[in-house]
């Protein structure tokens, strides 16, 4: 993932609302969201290069999401795949807090990341850059390729629109969230973050929805979680058009 916007205990019906975009090289092999054959309780997309995932849920109400921390000077050779952190949490029954504390002990094994993990009772955030395990309380949050609630323009704009959608509280919430994730508004140069990539790449990476010749937003995901069920919607973008899938899990 490269952008995760989420509302926690901020909506009348849904205690968790997630709207997220996965940005990746177009030629990286990927499976769309499905129940994994080797772990049938996991519902997630899958990176076929490293066999991890960027976002997923389970039939028991566990969920996890991850973004990379952007640092072009970071040496990643010999380090482990960040996608295994999401997959491992979904495979296990360990509490979110315990899992995050264990992840912190292994922080040096992975390139920079932001990890969110939770279940029907609690939600935690951890970044191996900041190295601070946090249990999150209610509110509107956003994380891209920096830390939680950074001042990046797309994070700020995304949180503002998510807050508006949450307050509207109508039945078209999934369509509204997918529309939010498709926003490709350019950011003026003076507002761009300085993350160590070229100005051209800062411009390309600045919108909520990214498109370039070889890298961009591959899919958008929306998760709604109430006391009764989880609704997971994924929209995959390809040269052939859009492919939507939706799954519902009773809790």
Automatic annotation (TrEMBL):
Organism: Cohnella kolymensis
Domain of life: Bacteria
InterPro entries: TANGO2 (IPR008551)
Protein name per its UniProtKB record: NRDE family protein
């Amino acid at each position: 993932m490269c952008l995760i916007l989420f509302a926690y205990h901020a909506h009348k019906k849904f205690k968790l609302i997630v709207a997220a975009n996965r940005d990746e090289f177009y030629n990286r092999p990927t499976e769309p969201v499905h129940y994994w054959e080797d772990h049938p309780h996991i519902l997630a997309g899958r990176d076929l290069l490293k066999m991890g995932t960027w976002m997923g849920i389970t039939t028991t109400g566990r969920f996890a999401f991850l973004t990379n921390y952007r640092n072009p000077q970071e040496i990643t050779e010999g380090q482990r795949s960040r996608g295994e952190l999401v997959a491992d949490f979904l495979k296990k029954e360990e509490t979110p807090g315990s899992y995050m504390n264990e992840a912190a002990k292994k922080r040096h094994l992975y390139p920079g990341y932001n990890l969110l993990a939770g279940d029907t009772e609690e939600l935690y955030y951890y970044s191996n850059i900041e190295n601070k395990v946090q249990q999150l309380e209610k509110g509107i949050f956003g994380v891209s390729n920096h830390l939680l609630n950074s001042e990046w323009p797309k994070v700020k704009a995304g949180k503002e629109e998510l807050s508006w959608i949450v307050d509207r509280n109508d039945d078209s919430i999934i369509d509204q969230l997918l529309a939010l994730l498709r926003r490709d508004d350019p950011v003026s140069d003076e507002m761009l973050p300085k993350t160590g990539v070229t100005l051209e790449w800062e411009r390309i990476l600045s919108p909520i929805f990214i498109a370039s010749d070889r890298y961009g937003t591959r899919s958008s995901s929306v998760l709604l979680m109430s006391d009764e069920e989880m609704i997971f919607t994924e929209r995959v973008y390809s040269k052939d058009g859009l492919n939507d899938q939706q799954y519902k899990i009773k809790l």
